[in-house]
Amino acid sequence: MISGHAATTLVAKRAVPEMPWWLLLVSAFLIDIAMFTFVALGIETMAPTGADGPTLANVIVDMTFSHDLIPQIGWTLLAGAIAFAVTRRRVFALTAMALSLGHWLADLVTGYEHHVFGPESYSLGTDWYRLNLPAALSFEAALGIFCVFIFTRGRSFSPGALAGLYGLFGVFPFAFLFI
Length: 179
Known about the structure:
Elements: H1 2-15, H2 21-41, E1 45-48, E2 59-62, H3 64-67, H4 69-87, H5 90-110, E3 114-115, E4 123-124, H6 128-131, H7 133-152, H8 159-171
Antiparallel strand pairs: 1-2, 3-4
């Protein structure tokens, strides 16, 4: 859910316009940053299983330390701590925490299976990336369209800018059907 997580920063920017974009993006993607770091270090796994190459549906994923419920509590607090340490603004810290938690909640709807803590614990989420990719991408596109609508409501944007925003967040997710 790449564009969906980025789209949520539009709503946050609308709510807290003085919050820097880089901090919004780091907050929204903190658990993915952790996941790719852990994969690079060999702590977590993301490996294709199909003979035709990697697709969203044929990847084995172990995201115990980055995406499971118990670590998510820590990631949410860390996002807030980073925002507060950098800016000393409580509203930025709360926004960062909301973006981090929102990432995890959106992943429960669209992403891979999550657990409470570890693959042997209770399973959470739809696992739509593996089981129903069109539904996952449709949800992501709908989230993107909703976020763009909230961000642009009552503001003046050129038709080209609006088309670009709606295309990026409402149409782009479907490109993953062909990757």
